[in-house]
Amino acid sequence: MISPEFSTGVTLLLYGLASVSGIVGMVARSPFWRKLGCWLAGAGFIFQTISLATGFHKALPGGLSLGAYLQLMAWFVVLCGLVAWGKLRQEAPLIFASPLGLMLFAMSAPYLEAVVQVPPSLKAPFYALHIGTLFLSLALLALAFAAGALFLFLEARIKSKQYMKGFWQDMPALTMLDKINAFTTVVAYPLYTLGIISGLVWAKPVFGATVTGDPKEVISIVIWMLFSVLFNNRITKGWRGRKPARLAVFIFILCLFSIIVVNTFMETHHAFIRR
Question: How far apart are CA 67 and CA 46, in angstroms?
Fold first, then answer.
């Protein structure tokens, strides 16, 4: 069986090479290096998938760890980048997803021994639905964040009449970045909603109440409300451009606060369990 150390090393190597190749391709305006970066990211994703499928569920008991959370986040982020590459024929989302996946996966390294085995009391369909839908929606939000931040940056350069030389000329058009933001929002919001609902249903038999006032629950509901505004205005009011880009960026920053600060430093049912 492949050891966690070996699988982690190979995945990090492939994601690292993908990041370097993609960035070099962007800076040098080289289609060859950009495409190579995308294929290397795909290879890293496949290797990580095999690693997760063969050993992820056999790790230590005790609950969801920070290392496991970060590894799954890396997997979902790269998955969304690959989907965007295949569906939208855009290399930029995957090129940006590769270094993000690399950073998330690298950050999990100190916690390799504390992967995941869900305790028997938590093994329920609603728990799996809760975790799976939230992971995927957060990965989509990461792409919405990248597209929104790049949209705001490029729009500011254009409005200030700065020259778009070099690799800036190869950036996706503002309309494409808005399309990516809209696509990820429309897909991620129902997933996030399903994750929240399934979590509330699952909480009743486990914690004795549907809503317990847990800090993670509170910030998750706040995020869902802001997400609802973004989704509703996208669908019913035809929001485009700067406003949805800004809100997507802010929502993702709140998600990072929830993951890094709430899960790690606050007293919560969702606290990461370390060895």
Answer: 19
Return the amino acid letter for 188. Answer: A
Residues 71 and 17: their CA atoms lie apart, in Å, by 18
Contacts of 62 (CB under 8 A, 6+ apart): 114, 117, 119, 273, 275
Distance CA 225, CA 38 (A): 35
Residues 6+ apart with CB under 8 A from 23: 37, 95, 99
Q: DSSP letter at 123? A: -
User: Alpha-carbon distance 148 to 141, whole Å?
Assistant: 10
**Residuewise pLDDT in 10s, the chain (275 residues):** 556 567 777 888 899 999 899 888 887 878 898 899 999 999 989 888 887 776 554 444 445 556 667 777 788 888 888 887 887 777 877 888 888 888 888 777 666 554 444 545 555 555 666 677 887 888 888 888 888 888 888 888 888 877 666 666 667 788 888 888 888 888 889 988 888 887 777 666 556 555 666 777 788 888 889 999 999 988 888 888 889 999 999 998 988 887 777 666 656 555 554 44
The whole-angstrom separation of Cα 99 and Cα 247 is 23
Q: In the chain, what are the helix, strand and coil shares in percent, each to the nearest 5?
A: 80, 0, 20
d(CA 41, CA 33): 12
Whose tokens are 């090393």? That residue is 9
What tokens appear for 88 in the block?
């939208």
Angle at which helices 125-159 and 66-88 pack, to 10 degrees?
60
Distance separating alpha carbons of residues 225 and 192, to the nearest angstrom: 11
129 Ramachandran zone, left/alpha/beta (phi>0; psi -120 to 50): alpha
